[in-house]
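Query structure, 338 tokens:
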């Protein structure tokens, strides 16, 4: 249930008290003219007809979706997530790029310089790498976080990196501007809640075999902790098709934008698992309405310690940025810096 209050602060307080007396919790979203009170719990205990009689209450809306806080019924305005000088969900397309994993300071700095020169806005790189095989490279850990932060600061680019357990959130939040929840952890509910409590923007990837509804319910775990800064990331789902690593579900972009107020970006690298498909899928993602891209780039992908087969070389990434910028302009959007 959503209660829209167009009144004084005391009107909002009165509504909150009314709801809490019935044993339910609330989530407030304050706008310039209205405050939206989201009721969390069994709303059958809340009589809508009584609520509508309270001073300042404009209307009461029952949300039928299983996801609540991420629903457009809860917030009809588009959420814009700000990361330093960047805005996810506005009129511009934000591109985060870098290697799959932080392998060394020299490698990360080389890649970061290359993607920044090509027009990328944010640096990506994994310090902790949850891999299918326990024998694969698992990342440099905290050393990787230190390197990522140093290179990020040197080049003036915000950074995003993955956190893989609730106990890591506090540490990773000290270094990263955005916390990434990977596909394998989309339904790690204690991790989602801890990331929400950190207050940091959270990039939530869709699970390998998760429906759109399950994805948005996962977002609600973060939002319910009072953290409104959630960026959704479509990264492909597992199907019967063996030719690509995953099946990149670009239809999810317009579907989610119809259902949710949260920004949506696309990861064409994991979505296809093949570097030669990354560029066409990146362009298609922007055409479908994505608010940004998450792309893997490596200066020597043949010898990368993680996911080299889906990483672009810098010259290919540079051309991709030019192409994406042209598509964005055709749609009335921009790629800042290009």
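Result returned for the query:
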């Amino acid at each position: 249930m959503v209660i829209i209050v167009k009144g004084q602060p005391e009107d909002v307080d009165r509504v909150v008290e009314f709801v809490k007396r019935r044993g339910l919790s609330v989530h407030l979203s304050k706008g310039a003219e209205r405050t939206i009170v989201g009721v969390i719990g069994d709303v059958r205990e809340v009589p809508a007809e009584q609520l509508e009689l309270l001073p300042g209450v404009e209307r009461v809306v029952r949300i039928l979706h299983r996801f609540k806080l991420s629903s457009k019924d809860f917030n009809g305005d588009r959420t814009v997530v700000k990361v330093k000088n960047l805005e996810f969900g506005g009129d511009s397309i934000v591109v985060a790029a870098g290697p799959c994993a932080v392998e060394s300071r020299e490698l990360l700095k080389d890649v970061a310089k290359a993607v920044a020169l090509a027009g990328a806005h944010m640096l990506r790189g994994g310090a902790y790498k949850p891999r299918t095989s326990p024998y694969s490279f698992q990342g440099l850990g905290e050393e990787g976080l230190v390197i990522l932060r140093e290179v990020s600061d040197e080049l003036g680019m915000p950074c995003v990196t993955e956190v893989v357990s609730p106990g890591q959130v506090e540490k990773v939040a000290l270094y990263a501007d955005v916390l990434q929840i990977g596909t394998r952890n989309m339904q790690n509910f204690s991790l989602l809640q801890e990331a929400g409590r950190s207050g940091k923007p959270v990039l939530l990837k869709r699970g390998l075999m998760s429906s759109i509804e399950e994805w948005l319910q996962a977002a609600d775990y973060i939002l319910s902790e009072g953290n409104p800064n959630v960026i959704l990331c479509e990264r492909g789902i597992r199907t019967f098709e063996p030719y690509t690593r995953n099946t990149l579900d670009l239809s999810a972009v317009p579907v989610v934008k119809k259902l949710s107020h949260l920004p949506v970006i696309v990861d064409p690298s994991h979505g296809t698992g093949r570097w030669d498909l990354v560029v066409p899928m990146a362009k298609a993602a922007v055409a479908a309405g994505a608010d940004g891209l998450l792309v893997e780039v490596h200066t020597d992908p043949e010898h990368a310690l993680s996911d080299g087969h889906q990483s672009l070389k810098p010259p290919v990434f540079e051309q991709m940025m030019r192409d994406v910028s042209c598509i964005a302009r055709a749609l009335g959007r921009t790629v800042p810096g290009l």
